[in-house]
Batch of 2 targets.
Target 1
Amino acid sequence: MDYRYRKNSDRQKPEQKLPKTDQTSNCRKARLKALKILERMDRTEAQLREKLLQAEFSPELVEDAIAYVKSYGYIDDERYVRNYIEYRREQKSRRQLEQELQYRKGVPQELIQKVYEDLEPADEKPLIRRFLEKKGYRPEITDEKTRRKLIAALLRKGFRMGDVLAVLRETDGWS
């Protein structure tokens, strides 16, 4: 019987001690659930932990399942961060990627910094140019108010002020 279709009254309460066979059975279920979750897509350790806890496994079983999949190399936060950055660095700023990884994916800031140190630095100026083109920026007809709004939008996207001003200087000689 699949655990998702049982009624809440059928589930044992966490404070009850389970017999040894039930404990190993639940351990096996948690490991299988972890493998099934990772089967669909790569995830961080924090995301997997959250999914397993949502499936109402005890914290001990969750930690056991995570250790199990880690031992086989199915979960590796450093690999995940490297792939995430390499795939998205052409669309988003460094700061935006860092925030997504840290707050949405649950990756520690130290690991993100370590991966960025290993990767070659990316020039964000082409991304800024593409954003300006997308917004229809034309230096000869854009007024000061619109220019300031574009700068503010770029800063909110995580681009550095120096890069934004450098691109604007290149395109229209603005200072």
Note: Residues 20-40 form the longest helix (21 residues).
Target 2
Amino acid sequence: MVGMHGVRDGLQVLGSDGGMIGRVDSIEENRLRLHSTAAPAGHYYIPAQWIERVDEHVHLNVTAATARERWEAAGDGPVSPGRNAGGTTGDRAGGHRNTFAWIVGAIFILVILVMTVRSCGYAVDESTNTERPLPSADSDATGTGATNGQ
């Protein structure tokens, strides 16, 4: 990290891959405010930690796509490196995919739990709300446990 020495208003900001991100709109204590016509909000903040070097451009140590995923729209609180405006790492839809995975996993675990309980060999007598052993294949149908042929 070079810091913000040499950064001035109007300089182009480029990702580590050379992709154009925007222009410096203003310089703040630990971040840059950028103007980007390619994004809907127009103004965004990026942290000073992303600055790799400054010459006729501001070069970042993250790619342009990564910077766009992680920058914060102007008016939000300070940005932290590696986090986007939603507070999650990576792309913005990742949180929704995680929620879906958790729901699917929870349903799967519940199904396994129900199958396990049902196959444990006991039944609940609903009239007395007590458990009793299920009749086995070699016992009589009355559930008394007497085996066939005895």
Note: The chain has two helices and nine strands.
